[in-house]
Amino acid sequence: MPPGAAPMPAPRPPKAPKAPKAPKPPLDAAGRKRKRRRVGAIVGASGLALAVLALTGWAFASGWASANRAGNATKEHAQAESVLIALPDYAGSEGAVVMPDVRGLDLDTAMQVLADAGVPEQIISTTERPAAGDPGVVVQQTPVFGASNPAGVLLVVSIEATVPDVVGQTAGNGVDALQGMGVRVIQQKVYVPGAKPGTITSTEPQAGAHLPETIIFKIADTPVERNLSELTVSGSSISKATDVVVGGVTYKTAFYLSAAKDPRETSWNLGGGAVELTGKLALRNAPEAGDAARVEILADGKVLGTYNVTSLDTTDIALNVSDVTSLVIRVTDTSTPNAYGIGIAFYDFKVLGSYDQMGAVG
């Protein structure tokens, strides 16, 4: 420092750095400072503690309930019996063993087919049942063919069966009597005089015979009527009338034939469709002393009935013409002394049959 100069002041020591100010508390929505509260921290801690206690209690309760249920389940299972079921061993088979169809085979053949298919003999059982057709044949099997690895096989084998007596029963009851016998029932409607419609009048074959695979039931039907006067005739001609009154009785239809000393024939084609011929016979006009005529009714050449007609009094006719193709009425004048052209009246003469049958009647 030069002489006479004033001494330089000593340098000031550097100021210590100021401590950073604490951050100001945030403002609320109104611009006011929020106060820090220790209460929030206390409440948060308390809530956490309570939650821990609650979870602990729930875990304890759940564990107790589970244990209790497990105990009950153990008791229940302890009371149940164990059943061992022996299943057939198919382990040695290549793929699944498929049940074959052995119906219709005799038992020996069926057993061989099952063995060839890989079905163990020890699981096969048999039973017997009356059935149509030949005895000793498998008529039913369980399980059905196509089943895989059957646990058991049941074969139902037929034994001799006979036709049951079902005449007089309804068709439904007759079919029920054959239920399960494997028989095919054919129902044919027929007219049988006096039979109740809907009932069985006969069977083919008859009751007691060996039961075949197909049986015929003939079922009584309500008759269909055809007047002979409406059918085509051959031979001697006839004259016709309707609503004829005789002795106070009205007949809807009538036809007349004239008899001579030589027999005269008139014929109708029934085609095998009619079953019964009914009507009434009488002389057409009041007779003179000794007037008479003979009437013969023939079916396919066979005489079914012969009647001597001598008056206006009627004679009832009821003849079976089942399966008859040709119906012939033959008239002969048997008067004494000889007469010529005796008239004979046929009142309400008609044939009856079922609807199915009468289509053949011409």
Q: How does this structure look, described?
A:
It is built from three helices and 17 strands. The protein is of the alpha+beta class. Among the domains are: 53 residues, no CATH class; 52 residues, Trypsin Inhibitor V, Chain A (2-Layer Sandwich); 136 residues, Jelly Rolls (Sandwich). The strands form four sheets. Strands 7, 9, 10, 12, 15 and 17 form a six-stranded antiparallel sheet that branches. A five-stranded antiparallel sheet has the order 8-11-16-13-14, with no helix packed on it. It is rod-shaped. The chain starts with 37 loop residues before the first helix and ends in a 9-residue tail after the last strand. The N terminus is likely disordered.
What is the N-to-C order of secondary-structure elements (H for helix, E for strand)?
HHEEEHEEEEEEEEEEEEEE
- What's the helical proportion of residues? 10-25%
Which radius of gyration do the C-alpha atoms yield? Answer: 56 Å
Mind describing the biggest β-sheet? 6 strands, antiparallel
The parts where pLDDT drops under 50 for at least 5 residues are 1-6, 26-78
Q: What's the tally of helices? A: 3
What's the average pLDDT?
80
Which fold name is given in CATH as the topology of the domain at 225-360?
Jelly Rolls
For this structure, what is the CATH homologous superfamily of the domain at 225-360? NPCBM/NEW2 domain
CATH class of the domain at 225-360: Mainly Beta
Query: Strand-residue fraction?
Result: 25-35%
Q: What is the overall shape?
A: rod-shaped
The span between the termini is 174 Å
Kindly name the structural category. Answer: alpha+beta
User: What is the number of strand segments?
Assistant: 17
CATH architecture of the domain at 225-360: Sandwich
